[in-house]
Amino acid sequence: MTSGEKTHEAGLPEWDGALDGAFQVLLGGKPLEDPAAAYGVYSSGLTDREPKELPYPGADEHPFSPAQWRFDFSESLFCFDSHLLAGTGPWGEGGHKGPRPFDEAFVAEVRAAATDGAEGVVVRGADLGPLLERHGVDLTHSGSKKLNGWLSVLLRVVTDGSLTEAQWEEALGAIAHPELRDHLRMLCLDEEDARDRGAYYCGADRWPFTTYVLDGIGCSLVAGWEFGESQAGTAVVRLSAAPDAR
């Protein structure tokens, strides 16, 4: 344990109070308490053409970066493009993407495992994993690189399910209050300033980049942020009561 961690643990009540106040500023007031509700964080972003390890190498240089987050792949959502599954458009005969790295039997099982209510075909990682193994589909293989942009992922950030933890997974470190203020300031930029640094705060009025998929499966937006030129987004949501949405 570092000295910073010791200091943080010793001042937990004061720290929690500071965080609660910051949340209320961003949310426009204290959220209604619902002990039965569960919350989560989903992160989306442009795919990379090369495989990446998690956390990203060098992530420790950026303590508030999503590169430091831990992800729950079983609860993450994998979104399949309709042309990809149907074998049409660029994936059809003569299309420039060429043959798909899986067969029709795999497609049929993916459709059967899709989450009800979602726009398009969206599959939880816990359901997709067994299908990949059963059909011998390796998404890390070089032949799967062409799926970039056609198979997107909403990564579920590991939290404890509470609203406080879900909103500020990235900020739960041993930081002093002035640094917290600076961090919050960088998360409240306008769309122009957020193009190259920090984030644009969407509030609960607009789903961040590609996270609208969550609306279709019954999640309610609590707060959201967009990064860059609509290149990545993070959504804090109240999870649906449906079992497959958790």
Give keywords.
globular; seven-stranded antiparallel beta sheet; 28% helix; 18% strand; 246 residues; 8 helices; alpha+beta
Question: Describe it for me?
Answer:
The chain is of the alpha+beta class and about 250 residues long. The chain has a domain of about 120 residues. Helix content is about 30%, strand content about 20%. It is built from 8 helices and 7 strands, in the order ααββααβαβααβαββ. The protein has a 7-stranded antiparallel β-sheet with strand order 3-2-4-1-7-6-5. The longest helix has 16 residues. The protein is globular, with a radius of gyration of 20 Å. The N terminus is likely disordered.
Helix segment count? 8
Mean pLDDT figure: 76
Number of strands: 7
| Secondary-structure element series | HHEEHHEHEHHEHEE
Strand % is 15-25%
Shape: globular
What Rg, in angstroms, do the CA atoms define? 20 Å
Report strand order across the widest sheet: 3-2-4-1-7-6-5
